[in-house]
Design brief:
mainly alpha
Length: about 220
């Protein structure tokens, strides 16, 4: 009989995963008496493979351009951006109780850390030129992915969805103050505006009710 430490249950199964919490089971395998319950990774396995392939292709293209130009190193930010994308997705699915809150927290923390790092190394503006806009782009991509995969769950986390989309528009300030490379900021603004407008179009009543509840109107 296998044991799930998280659920504190003993289960007769030949699976390595608990059918209730998806945690790893320990103990001797037995004949499976439960129906197979596919987890989120198995359910969208093809989608994640395509996303991984696109990430690798885009990263290789950026690295090639960097090597050809031999001047800029934006490919480093692109590769790290994709790494963050998959880390955020994995964290989000593992903490399903508050997906968008988790993404919002990571966005804020990483943005603050990048600014502090930039500041204490002479402030060369790379934090607001590249890091923060790219983080906002990653979050907007995550919002799109999660809203497609977890349609019903979006209603419960709509407030954090709004917060992330609005934060993604903040790079507009960087353009106003005249940062040298505006492309990452422009992409971030456009993507998050699309996310926010899509939310208003398809979930206007839910947004209205959430804002009333939060602001006690």
């Amino acid at each position: 009989m296998r044991t799930c430490k998280k659920c504190n249950l003993k289960i007769k199964t030949d699976s390595d995963i608990c059918p209730l919490c998806q945690n790893k089971l320990i103990g001797k395998k037995e004949d499976n008496v439960f129906p197979v319950i596919p987890n989120i990774y198995k359910k969208y396995f093809t989608f994640f493979k395509i996303l991984l392939l696109i990430s690798i292709i885009v990263s290789l293209i950026c690295i090639t351009i960097d090597l050809m130009i031999n001047k800029y190193h934006f490919s480093v930010f692109v590769v790290l951006g994709f790494v963050c994308l998959f880390i955020i997705l994995k964290t989000a699915f593992n903490n399903k109780e508050s997906l968008f809150k988790s993404i919002l927290g990571q966005l804020v923390i990483l943005s603050i850390l990048s600014i502090l790092w930039d500041y204490f190394t002479g402030f060369h503006y790379w934090s607001i030129t590249y890091v923060i806009p790219i983080l906002c782009i990653i979050c907007s991509v995550n919002l799109a992915i999660l809203s497609i995969i977890l349609k019903n769950y979006l209603n419960e986390e709509i407030f954090y969805f709004i917060c992330i989309a609005l934060i993604g528009i903040i790079p507009l300030i960087f353009i106003v103050i005249g940062i040298p490379n505006k492309i990452p900021s422009i992409i971030s603004i456009l993507l998050n505006l699309i996310c926010f407008i899509s939310l208003l179009i398809f979930k206007f009543k839910d947004v209205q009710e959430e804002l009333k509840r939060r602001m006690h109107i």
